[in-house]
UniProtKB/TrEMBL annotation:
Domain ABC transporter: 9-247
Pfam family, any one: ABC_tran
Organism whose genome encodes this protein: Sphingomonas palmae
Bias (Basic and acidic residues): 308-318
Keywords assigned: ATP-binding, Nucleotide-binding, Transport
Region: Disordered, residue numbers: 259-325
Protein name: Phospholipid/cholesterol/gamma-HCH transport system ATP-binding protein
Record's signal peptide: none
GO molecular function, one term: ATP hydrolysis activity
């Protein structure tokens, strides 16, 4: 398979079967470096099996998988150690160890890949990752059962970021979150992706997530990736599932919500411009698309941790639409 610097994952001719059931049959997909790729498809189309095939938890019957330019199939764990330490995974539901605290959960991959790290350093890295994902610092010693669903997702994300990965896999990160919590998690994902230069492979049923933060979307159907592109590019195809998914009532509601969010941010940008003109010596604020990130002082004033560079102003648009399974 040709190597390309533009692609962090390359999949060719993937075949996965469970008994008589064929889940993937000649699936191809490339993931570009630095993008957030949304992966969608009806329930049971094999999104999670695809992710598991990439990260080595599922052995496909045939095909080629390359990550960071290295083939991953047919190689044992020690051979892929250098590759595996360069990605992080947030499994569906967070998959935290219930008998470990949040900090201990974050330390699991650190202990696995760097067994010689001393305890003080493990604690320090875990604390940093906890705060980085917007959790309060006192979440570290808590057990998963003591956290809300949204906080558990953030704790799972903190663990996924433990090794400073270049590539992040997120399996339905906003499932089960309320609309405001889901929008905040999207903004956290995008903030981290931009700040840390991550590539994100994001499985979701959440149309708002697709519209809000995904650069491209890959659609799984008929045992393959039937289309991959920006949402306007997908809308230009005539595949019935794609048309129904994006043009159905939930798709239209997601577009409306996106439009409202855009209008709101335009208003904020205009008002920020007026403020800047009126107070030219004040520290500038940055308005990036839908995301407004204040200065550390602004964040502190809003109650966000002052040392958290990724904390973003949470969107409070009321409408949020999750695609049907
Ligand atoms: N270990 C396994 N053994 C047998 N069948 C499996 C196994 N893992 C997955 N499958 C089957 O493969 C198919 C695809 O599963 P997968 O979990 O990838 O779907 P999905 O697209 O992620 O679905 P959802 O959106 O509902 O999470 C399903 O029919 C599932 O039952």
């Amino acid at each position: 398979m040709a190597n390309s610097d533009d692609h962090i994952i390359r999949i060719k001719g993937l075949v996965n079967r469970f008994g008589e059931q064929t889940v993937h049959d000649g699936l191809d997909l490339d993931v570009r470096r630095g993008e957030i790729l949304g992966v969608v498809g009806g329930s049971g189309t094999g999104k999670s099996v695809l992710m598991r095939s990439i990260i080595g938890l599922q052995t496909p019957e045939a095909g080629e998988v390359e990550v960071f330019g290295e083939p991953t199939l047919g190689r044992d764990e020690t051979e892929t150690l250098d590759i595996r330490r360069r990605w992080g995974v947030l499994f569906q539901g967070g998959a935290l160890f219930s008998t470990l605290t949040v900090a201990e959960n974050v330390q699991v991959p650190l202990r696995e890949f760097y067994p010689d790290l001393d305890l003080a350093l493990l604690d320090e890295i875990a604390s940093y990752k906890v705060v980085m994902t917007g959790l309060p610092a006192d979440a570290g010693p808590k057990y998963p059962a003591e956290l809300s669903g949204g906080m558990r997702k953030r704790a799972g994300l903190a663990r996924a970021l433990a090794l400073d990965p270049e590539l992040l896999f997120l399996d339905e990160p906003t499932a089960g979150l309320d609309p405001i919590g889901a929008a905040a998690f999207d903004q956290l994902t995008q903030g981290l992706q931009r700040t840390l230069g991550l590539t994100v492979f994001l499985i979701t049923h959440d149309l708002d997530t697709l519209y809000a933060i995904c650069d491209r979307v890959a659609v799984l159907a008929d045992k393959k990736v039937i289309a991959v592109g920006t949402i306007p590019e997908l809308l230009a195809t005539d595949h019935p599932w794609i048309q129904e998914y994006f043009n159905g009532p939930r798709g239209r509601a997601a577009v409306d919500a996106q439009q409202k969010a855009g209008d709101k941010m335009d208003g904020q940008a205009r008002s920020a411009d007026a403020d800047a003109a009126a107070h030219p010596t004040e520290v500038a604020r940055t308005v990036e698309g839908q995301r407004t990130q204040g200065t550390l002082a602004d964040n502190a004033a809003r109650g966000a941790p002052a040392d958290d560079p990724t904390r973003t102003l949470e969107r409070t648009d009321a409408a949020r639409t999750t695609g049907t399974k």
